[in-house]
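#struct-pred

JT: dropping the chains for the assembly here, can someone run the whole complex?
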Amino acid sequence: EIVLTQSPGTLSLSPGERATLSCRASQSVSSTYFAWFQQKPGQAPRLLIYSASRRPTGIPDRFSGSGSGTDFTLTISRLEPEDFAVYYCQQYGTSPWTFGQGTKVEVK
Amino acid sequence: EVHLVESGGGLVQPGGSLRLSCVASGITFSSHWMHWVRQAPGKGLMWVSKINSDGSSTDYADSVKGRFTISRDNAKNTLFLQMNSLRVEDTAVYYCTRALGTLDDWGQGALVTVSS
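RK: done, full complex below.
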């Protein structure tokens, strides 16, 4: 099973600041099969990024993903109030599909 | 617009059974792989199971293999998860998801509580 480790656990930032979230895999993951999700309290997760760097329709361009191999990054260029949430990375190239433990982005 | 609506959650004793359903609308249900993902209270996400578009191929997380069965009825646009021999650690919100590549669309979730 591929283990995904996210850092930091919590990120305390102010609106307008840049957020950088990291995810490290225990073995190499094809960038084609790497995703990021956002989850707000009481809501289902929402797909933000797929194939490491591609945004689904409707996702703002302040969200960007990068990385390859074992190291991947989600960047939020300027935090909006609605961006404070928990973010999960995920690999879907190898069964079982696995998630990171999450990074909480909170208001400083 | 895609809608996935889960039902069937509730309180069950350890060792008991429960069947979750998920009705899909706004999509050609029979064309898509479907998955179940769960989230224990205050915890992260865990992939549970998947099924291909015609129901001929399934896969499970090790922790539920042999106890859970995923199935679908394409004529009724419905996904199922039969959960047997439930354990306290199966307590979670169970999400039905539609996969285009990864888990692209999610239902609102169904809470399953396993407790005596």
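JT: nice. The interface with chain B takes residues 33, 35, 37, 39, 44-47, 50-51, 56, 88, 90, 92, 95-102 of chain A (CB under 8 Å). Residues 24 and 71 of chain A are 5 Å apart (CA to CA).
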